[in-house]
Batch of 2 targets.
Target 1
Amino acid sequence: MKTKLIILIVFVGTCAGQQSSRSWKDVNYAGDDKQYHCLDIFLPETTKPLYPAIVVIYGSAWFGNNGKESAFRIYGKPLLESGFAVIAVNHRSSRDSIFPAQINDIKAAIRFIRANAKSYQIDSKFIGVTGFSSGGHLASLAGTTGKVKKFTVNTESADLEGKVGNNLKFSSSVDAVVDWFGPTSFRIMDTCDPEMNHNAADSPESTLVGGPIQDNPDKCALADPITYVDKNDPPFLIIHGDADNMVPYCQSQKLFEALQLKKVPGQFVTVPNGGHGPGVFEDKYFKMMTEFFSAEANRK
């Protein structure tokens, strides 16, 4: 039996830029006053001149525009304890604006971090990205589109880089990606997921691209991280439960296969009987994430 995923969207206020000794809250990366263009920056307690950084992206089926606190709580804390600066980022929801607004926002946040790295004690030589579910999709997309600005598939085009913010001369590329069970190839999702109707006109994926996914193959291709995989992509760690009933396990399988085909360094970790959501995973999987990022940062 197929079910629908219902997400409550919460839209809250504007960002004010409150600061504490080791963190900065509600910093606007776009030069406007929108809450969905805010990020939080956290530095480890260990004192160093500069810290490698990880951008963390929440999951919400792209329906949420203010989830940075949950992203930090779930993924940011273990990264912070491992010596990374952590940047938890908001982005526009699919109800605020359809794709590519979401990746435009993530790229703008990465550019902001690079442009202001010294102010926040960030070592811009290493910026990684991670996210879960729809946040995993955006993390993977940031990884595979690091040098892609505009892209065309048949009759549809997308400006992946976008023009959000005032730091357009800075790079939006990332140095490593940890993708937690993110969608990667929309139009095949229902072929391996008996639980949820991704083809429905009101599914998260259809809402993101602005129409039923099977009626919009080119728009889906533009939103699929797999479309952009090439040999220059950064290393990936992909983690996915094989009992996930919302984002099919095959999504991570297909991405990993595409990365291997292009000889992109990567690891694919299966969580036996793992469902959807980070709360079902044991601590050892979070340790895999921190160890992966630490190894990649040490290569720089």
Target 2
Amino acid sequence: MNLQEKQRVFPEKIRPLISELTNVIVVKDGVIEKNTVSDAALSIEAQPLDEQLTKAFDDHDPVIKENLKSASFSLLITVKKDCTIKEPINLFIIQDKTTNVVNVSMVAEAGSSAQIREYIYTDTSQTVNYLSRSYLHPSSQLDYIGIVNLDKDSLSAINRQVIVMDNAKALLKTAQLGDGKTSQKVDVDLNGPFAYGEVKTIAIASEEQEVIIHTHVEHKAKNTQGEIEHYGVAANESFLVFEGTGKIHKGMKQSIAHQSNNGVVLGRYARLDANPLLLIDEYDVEASHGAAIGRIDEEQLYYLMSRGLSEKDAQRLIINGFLAPLKDLMENENLKDYIQGLLETKTGR
């Protein structure tokens, strides 16, 4: 592929990421345009949805039903039994000229371990219906990062579902950094004893953007642990909502459900709501939730300004500290620069 073809296929703003990273799969407008993954421990197939995998998930949500019914592209990534994938798999989902319905399934077989980095991107007005499903067999582990950056005129529904079996561990981090109206939902089912699920979400809303973040962790086995952490910034006239639910079913003793919501409001007309919820049907458990939403602490701001910083620089320093969990996403300099640029643009700093 010559330079002109690469420029046509890969949008300019994320082209450096694609060229810098290894183990890259690029899906653009429903077609695999690039695949540099070559690991014998992996199986990567573009194919219709796996019927057995589909049956394992609950599909009452109408948006998910529509995705399953009309998906224009499906990808299945399987990590083979007892294998460890040391280098992250970087999956780019790009929409440019057509509106596609895309779903990706990931299966971690027993005793396996993998890292998935998912980038959903468009720089044109699009309607995005994206679904990812992960099934973790006993004693497996998945480290999953999902970054969403969509055009301001886009409308998106991003759904991620995870089933975690015995002694398996799911570590999910998602970052909503785009400009379009977005509904993002993460559902984690802890279906086996000693299953662990952790969901950390960062969302930044700006201008007149509306972003709704749902996180649901359900305990369906004993001795399971679920952790939900939300971090958000609402700027200008935007509206950001965090809805988190931890549900422990009756009889699921010794389970642990924790949730925290943290947010900063920038701008007189911005709004950030947090709605933490615990549904507990068992006594012998540990559960907690909390929310801390507010504007930048005036005392912190004054202290930094008294040390010679301008008000904007002081605000930027405070916000960068608040969004420290984003450092988990910064695995190389290109990725670090890309995310830092998005942060500064989104917060007006």
